[in-house]
Structure formats: structure tokens, C-alpha cells
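Please check our next protein.
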Amino acid sequence: MKKEDFFEVLGNTRDTYILEALASSRPLSSRRLKWGILAACLLLALLSRPALFPPPGTPQEPADSRDGPPHLVLEDQVFYISSYLSVTDTLPEGFSPGGNTDVDGVGNCPYYLNPQIPEWVYVYQEVRTDGSVDEHGTLKSTGPHDAYVRYVDGRLRGKSLLCYNGNLYISMWHVNENMDADKKLCETTRKIFGIRIEGEPPENFTHTGTATFSGHDTIPREHLLSNYDASEVYADPDNPEILFVSTHWYTATAEENGQTRHDGFDVYILYSGPLK
């Protein structure tokens, strides 16, 4: 989507947010790039004050009245708008009224809770999109209307988690060592493996199965479930704090004279944060 198209969806948007939506210092897989653009479109389409979510791994602190993504606070926990497309005209099953709340200065917004999914809150608010995309992957804009929008616990939002042998693991791309995992484990893993490797998995890490996709914004709680993607998982019984999860990405530098695909593995470490 071109910058001019963003402005057609929602006027009076600050240039800073558009630049943040399109910029990234990390090489992206085609799937991750697509969802990043769609999520940025969704946020810009909301009629509440336009703002964009921070890069994955950014500590999630309560935003003030002018900065940060749309959010609400319930019982001292901050919920941010989902990083993925989550607009629906029908309230999802299992959610019931929780009261009214303020969302970024817009007061009296009804919100809905589900005790089985405490990490989600749905807010009924005015939007200019139905959450669908066209054949080119561009978010469809609509006239102003009320819809249910998913907000996610700030400690989960934008983080890749995987369940293996009853334990949660988190991608090194997204880990916050002050909140999500043991600091020493983070430092040691980053020093030895980094956050992603290209080529084959390290010695002694063998294929243990394919993780099934559990859905965006979910906390995978069953063996070999992942909230990012269906991927091949490699483990070492003698090193249970680390997993390697298959991935691929593309680069397109001037020297490459075109797009080059790279195959390798994202590094995951044992998650010890508050979402266990």
C-alpha cells in the first residue's frame, strides 16, 4: 500500500507513524512482511487516535495519552490492540460484557471478557475497515461503523511462543530478558547462537516434529503448538533450554542483483515469564 493510500483510509495521520509502519531493521519472511503491513493498515484505519505498535521485543509499558498503540487498562494490566487483523462484526463465542472503559481518550467503550482466554479483551468501537483484504493483500476500507476489536495482554502481544514437552519457549527475536526469560540464558544463547542461524541446526539437535499453528495472539499450551507458524522443531535432550525452529527469509541487496532466499532456524529459549 502506498503512502497516499494510507491517508485515504484515515486522514490527519502523522508522518512519523507511517514511517514506523513501513520501516524495519530486520530481514523479513514474506509472510511476516505481509502481516506487518496489514497490521499497520488496521491500526491506521481505526477511528481512535492513530498510532502504531512498537517493534517485537519492545518492553510493553503503559502508553500516555499521545504515544503508543491504542490501549486500555484493566486491573492494572495494559491491553494493546492486536498486531494482527482482528476486527469482527460478531462478538466471538465465550465473551460476555465486562463493562465500559476508556480507549485512548475515547470513553464509554463496551468491552468483553472470556475467563478461558484472559489474555484477550474485545472492545466495541468505531472503525473504518471490516478486517478483510483484497487479492493484493491490501486492507479494505469501509465507511465508519462499530465493530469488535481484539486487544491483547501487553506481555503477550507480538511474541512468538511455542509449547514443547509441556514447557513454553519464546523466540529470541522477541524475548525481553528482564521479563520473559532468565537473563543469563539470554546472554549465553545470544553469544553462542545469536537469534537466528542459516543452514543446518547445530550438532546434537535433531528433528522432533512439526509444530502446529495455534492461532495469532494465542498462548500455545499443548505439545508442539506454535502461535507464529507451523514449523519444524529441533531439540537436544541434553540442552532442554533451547530449541531451533525452521524458517526462511529473503534479502535483496545491490550485490545480490535480485532477491535471495535463505533457509535456517530461529532460536527459541525456555520462557519463564508471567504467561506460563
Q: What stands out?
A: The chain has two domains: 3-153, 161-270.
